[in-house]
What does this fold into?
Amino acid sequence: MEFSALVEQRRSVKNYDSSATISDDQLKSLFAAVVKSPSSFNLQHWGFVVSRDQTLKESLQGAAWGQPQVAACSAVVVVCGKLDAYQDVAQIFAGAPDEVIQKVDGVCQQIYGNNEQAQRDEAIRGSTLAAMSLMYAAKDQGLDSGPMIGFDPNAVAEILDIPSNYIPTMMIVLGTGADEELPPQSRKPLDEVVKLEKFSGNGLS
Ligand SMILES: Cc1cc2nc3c(=O)[nH]c(=O)nc-3n(C[C@H](O)[C@H](O)[C@H](O)COP(=O)(O)O)c2cc1C
It folds into this structure.
């Protein structure tokens, strides 16, 4: 699908056909696209838990303020951010000259090593970029999606056995939308959100 069509057609869908399913092959195709997302130093701060089991989805719904789309969708993806991804330099840069690995490792330790805020910011940034890729990849493959932050992260981490070096950053429901029509999108005007040259400059009009 053309990117312009994807952008128009992706919507946050809340009502799903609960009889629709998503296969492992569909997931492989989706996530093969998702992992092409960019990340700082290519550290790939993401991890995903895909829950299709009905009982698990209902537990997740309980941790998500009872929002019905969590139990009705075909798969719930909990997007996680890896807090200590800066420790993965040797793995990611395997095959590069030693001096390159040492240099990147040194810079990463400097930026993230003793800075929990920076670790958390980067985990959220990296995993959120991947979440956006997932929503576009889903639409491209004929699936609907809905991003969600309305959940208790501690409860979700416990239900899904998420280890403490990962934080759940977003829940994305995937499936086949059941609505014939969605309300129109509303967005702030471009001249309010895009400023030219400086924040104090003119709005784009
Ligand atoms: C970070 C984030 C969290 C969201 N959380 C929820 C949520 O918990 N429940 C929900 O129904 N929609 C949620 N949404 C969907 C937004 O309401 C939706 O993206 C927005 O209204 C724009 O609509 P559109 O995505 O169809 O363009 C969330 C969206 C984002 C990006």
Observations:
- The first strand starts at residue 46 and ends at 51.
- The mean pLDDT is 97.
- Residues 116-140 form the longest helix (25 residues).
- The radius of gyration is 19 Å.
